[in-house]
Amino acid sequence: MSAILAWVPVGAQKRHVHTVVEIPRVEARVIPIGTEKMQILLQVDEDGKVFMPHVGAPIANPQEFLRYKGGRRWLREAYPAQGGTFLGVPAFHVKYKDGTHNTELRYVSHQCHASDGVETTAVALSDYVTSLEVRLIFCAYAKENVIKAHTEITNAGKTPVELLEYASSALNLEADKYLLTHFRGDWAVEMQPVHEQLEYGTKVIESRRGTQGTRNENPSFLLSLGSDSFSEEYGDVLAGGLCWSGNFTLSFDRSVNGRLSILAGIASHASAYPLRPGKTFVTPDMVWTFSMEGAGGASRNLHRWARREGVYRGGTITPTLLNSWEGAYFDFTTPVLTGMIDDAARMGLEMFVLDDGWFGTKYPRNSDKCGLGDWELNSAKIPEGIEYLAAYAHEKGLKFGIWIEPEMVSPLSVLAETHPEWVVQSPGREIYQSRNQWCLDLSNPAVQDFVYGIFDRTMQLAPGIDYIKWDCNRPVVSFGSPYLGNEQDRFFVEYVQGLYSVMDRIREKYPDVMIQCCAGGGARVDYGALKRCNEFWTSDNTDAISRATIQYATSMVYPACAMASHVSAVPNHQTGNVTPLKMRFDMAAAGRLGMELQPKNLTEEERALAMRCIASYKGFREVVFTGDLYRLSSPVDSDYYSFMYVNEDKSKAVVFEFCLRYQARESRDRGLLLKGLDPARTYKVVEQNVDQSCWWGNGQFFHGDFLMEGGFNPRLVQSGASAIFVLEASQ
Ligand code: GLA
Fold first, then answer.
1. pLDDT (tens digit per residue) in 388-437
2. 584 CA distance to ligand 1 centroid (A)?
3. Alpha-carbon span 173 to 515, nearest angstrom
4. Whose CA is nearest to atom 8 of ligand 1?
5. Which of 236, 540, 543, 628 is catalytic?
6. 67-81, 178-192, 497-511: which range is least confident on average?
7. Atom 4 (ligand 1) nearest CA
8. Is there a catalytic annotation at residue 186?
């Protein structure tokens, strides 16, 4: 193929000659990408254009689309690029060296291969004028009903190009109505569900914070199709989550024809990415699922996929723990910590985690004002060393974990003095502080090595460090990397790539260490981080009432096995609310249970209750970690929050109910309609952690259908009352 535009001098004048490159013809075909209950169809036309005629339930004879006649198909390209006849929001937009902006992707070839219940389809496209290649990769998880998609962009030409838009994946849908559920949030009030009907135009969910990508919005959503209302049980729901811990954009463009185009990927904000000749850019994965059983079905699909692949060692039981933060903050010495370890062991907890405050020598970390970056033990606080503390915990039968915040540096630190060029900064401009700290420039490979070294050295502080809490307490502002020089457009992308490459190196050396991903609470809850971390810190807000909404919405996308949930003191340190200890335990038992308080401040009676709740949790947590979730009532729309987990063979279930606000006697007359049980089996129903049950049927046997049709009506008639029931099938 030759250049198509040439200026030919004719005497003193220039004559414009326009030649059009011939488009190669290909065989028309349909490429089905499918799971048991979800299908995406790609259709290739003879001119090589690739469309997406269908997303939804499987169509058994998709080849019939080859006979389809009708308009508007140009609106449904599988990966719409800026160029050609496309007028919508492009998934892909390239600026070429000659200043032109148009790309027209045409089919080249495709390949499929299947292994272990996953079918991978790679569709190669290329621009018919430039040498740009795009591969759309889809991995279809048959049983989980998840299709994971990403894109690989190769500059096969001779000059660099600029990627202005480079979505991971695009989907096209057609429905009468679209109800979008997404998650707004902030510190201590993460994951607040918002339901909004999509009107004509483009709705965008995004983050431009650099780090802490999920502080104000999560890169995930649910979309109820053809409906005004959100339903746990009924209707078609498409849902998805982007595997990326930085700037992201999810856009929902409802065209004038009513059709909806969804794009998901890295935000192009300040990130016109330069792609050199011969280089390939790989976008992050986007995870899609489709359910005909409402939002509940979509969540269960995502959870199953997450336990299989989305969460590092997902579905594996992680230990209950005591974290030192709210119990001691920065104010501790060895005896305080060994005292906490003793108490944790006595209560039946399985790990002790030493949080912030253990490091810094020239600038000891006795408050959040200094010390980040100087990851040496503060021996004034712990003269015996971390080794002693870890051994102390291990002797008591506990695992041992420790906190780091390796992407950050305090202005008051030896690190800031010795490596000022490692700080994110823009020439001549103020380096703004947030929580008295700056960000390190992870786009710089030297900084990546340093951050890897922090983790590696922390692991060497004691034999058998079992768990690392990896925190990240501020966003990037006034961004800039001294390392990237005049290519600052690479910063946001390469920061996250740098972070992932550090974490991947860590995982290679330390496959067994448990990592909690924390970012000032839940500001890094995404499937990019979770691929490398066992769990996330859901929120710094541990008030059981606040946690009801946070955990409810989190559960729509992320599985309980990864959701860290702690019992803290009252009045709650974030809200000042006072909730009963049992309610706090019952709420924490919905995920990975922990405690975060000074056990010395518990009364004997409270300690006894704690021991009882921890012991009972160990008896049913496997169902929480691996079971299917059914949300029964929403804490947002109801005074009661209830949900249940059912294990795979339906032999065991755990039901949770919380009375968030008791207002009137009638509010609970109907009882709960349980879900997911085997209607024909009998279950023994036993309430946990009480002497006096709130249900008349406690300890008795009932058929699944009775429990699912209204026979189960525990009486929780006080704000703050809560109950957990374990159901075990008798045969
Ligand atoms: C963040 C975390 C907390 C705690 C503190 C320590 O706020 O979310 O859990 O680790 O940092 O400074």
1. 999 999 999 999 999 999 999 999 999 999 999 999 999 999 999 999 99
2. 20
3. 38
4. 520
5. 540
6. 67-81
7. 325
8. no
Q: Mean pLDDT across the stretch 626-645?
A: 97
Question: Probe ligand 1: pick from 329, 355, 368, max atoms within 8 Å of CB?
Answer: 355
Active site residue: 471, 489, 526, 628, which one?
471
Mean pLDDT, residues 162-166 taken together: 98
pLDDT computed for residue 729 by the predictor? 98
For the chain, percent of residues with pLDDT exceeding 90: 93
Q: Which domains does the chain have, with CATH numbers?
A: 27-170 (2.70.98.60), 175-267+286-310 (2.70.98.60), 321-404+459-472+503-625 (3.20.20.70), 631-729 (2.60.40.1180)
Cα torsion 445, 446, 452, 454: sign? negative
Contact between 388 and 335 (Cβ < 8 Å): no
The whole-angstrom separation of Cα 186 and Cα 1 is 52
Tell the residue nearest (CA) to atom 12 of ligand 1: 356
Please say if 540 is a catalytic residue.
Answer: yes
Q: Which of 403, 538, 568 to mutate to test the pocket of ligand 1 (most atoms within 8 A of CB)?
A: 403
In whole angstroms, give the CA distance from residue 335 to residue 19.
82
Ligand 1: distance of its center to the CA of 580 in Å? Answer: 24
Q: Is 710 left (phi over 0), alpha (psi -120 to 50) or beta?
A: left
Q: Which of 637, 641, 654 is nearest to 593 (CA)?
A: 654
- What is the DSSP code (8-state) at residue 204? E
Q: Which residues contact 436 (CB under 8 A, 6 or more apart)?
A: 368, 369, 370, 410, 411, 412
Mean pLDDT in the chain? 96
Antiparallel, parallel or unpaired: β 563-568 and 178-184: unpaired
Cα 486 to Cα 69, 108, 323, 531, distances in angstroms = 51, 36, 44, 32
| Residues contacting residue 170 through CB under 8 Å, at least 6 positions apart | 52, 77, 78, 79, 80, 91, 261, 262, 263, 264
Residue 212 to residue 472: CA distance in whole angstroms: 7
Q: Is 88 in contact with 64 (CB distance < 8 Å)?
A: no
* Section 692-706 average pLDDT: 97
Query: Cα–Cα distances in Å, from 8 out to 129, 149, 390, 572?
Result: 20, 45, 77, 77
Residue closest by Cα to atom 7 of ligand 1: 520
Q: Cα(203) to centroid of ligand 1, in Å?
A: 33
CA of 729 to the centre of ligand 1 (A): 42
Ligand 1 pocket (Cβ < 6 Å) reads 325, 355-356, 368, 403, 471, 473, 518, 520-521, 537, 540
Q: What is the DSSP string of 38-91?
A: -EEEEEE-TT--EEEEEEES--S-GGGGGG---S-GGGGBSS-BSSTT--S--S
Tell whether pTM > 0.85: yes
The residue contributing the CA closest to ligand 1 atom 6 is 356
Residue 6 has a pLDDT of: 47
Task: Please say whether the beta carbons of 471 and 522 come within 8 A.
Answer: no
Which residue in 475, 491, 494 sits closest to 212, CA to CA?
475
Task: Calculate how far, in angstroms, residue 614's C-alpha sits from the geometric centre of ligand 1.
Answer: 24
CA of 357 to the centre of ligand 1 (A): 10
CA 196 – CA 490 distance, rounded (Å): 34
